[in-house]
Amino acid sequence: MHEPRDPDPGTEQQAGVVGPVPGSDGEVGYRGVTACHAVGISYRQLDYWARTGLVVPSVRDASGSGTSRLYSFRDLVVLKVVKRLLDAGVSLQNIRRAIEALRSRGVEDLAGITLISDGTSVYECRSPEEVVDLLQGGQGVFGIAIGGAFKEIQGSLSHLPAEPVGGPPAVADAPESVGDELAARRARRRAG
Q1: DSSP label at residue 107
Q2: Distance CA 5, CA 57 (A)
Q3: Whether the Cβ atoms of residue 15 and residue 27 lie closer than 8 Å to each other
Q4: Sheet holding 17-20: strands in order across?
Q5: What sign does the CA torsion over 160, 166, 172, 174 have?
Q6: Are 59 and 19 in contact (CB under 8 A)?
Q7: Helix and strand tally (H, E) in the chain?
Q8: How far apart are CA 82 and CA 92, in angstroms?
Q9: Which terminus in the chain has less CB density within 10 A, N or C?
Q10: pLDDT tens-place string over residues 69-108
């Protein structure tokens, strides 16, 4: 018979957590069930994403029957991002392509990336000025800051004339009965 062994000093084994106590010098791993609860996904999704390489646990992958995967906190962040993209309507195929594009560029720490989605495509926000469409081969896209456009228009209008809305209509160069340039041409043709 086997004798139970004491865990290593500084190591705690709780439901879902295996590894050093948080705050100690070692790393903490989260079992699949705990990861599912933290992220809000099913165990079937988690298993499929790990087997297909979408989000592979970085602490310990399953290495046969009886072993369990251990996910790091950063892995859980990536899992949550994948779930949010799915909830936003992005297909799993497009999410996979976006993550593969990031990894092919050498981005190992996916948790440090800011992703934006319109429900169809996935964009990486590299800086406030640069957004890249990950599904179109890294093609740059641009955003329009409405607040910036608002201020720009305000600045432009400060040098241009305005007229009161409730006042009488302004007198144009055309005859009084004519409202626009086309009507003025027609009136000239008829007169002459």
Answers
A1: -
A2: 26
A3: no
A4: 11-14, 17-20, 29-31, 70-71
A5: positive
A6: yes
A7: 6, 8
A8: 8
A9: N
A10: 899 888 888 888 889 889 888 899 988 888 888 777 776 6
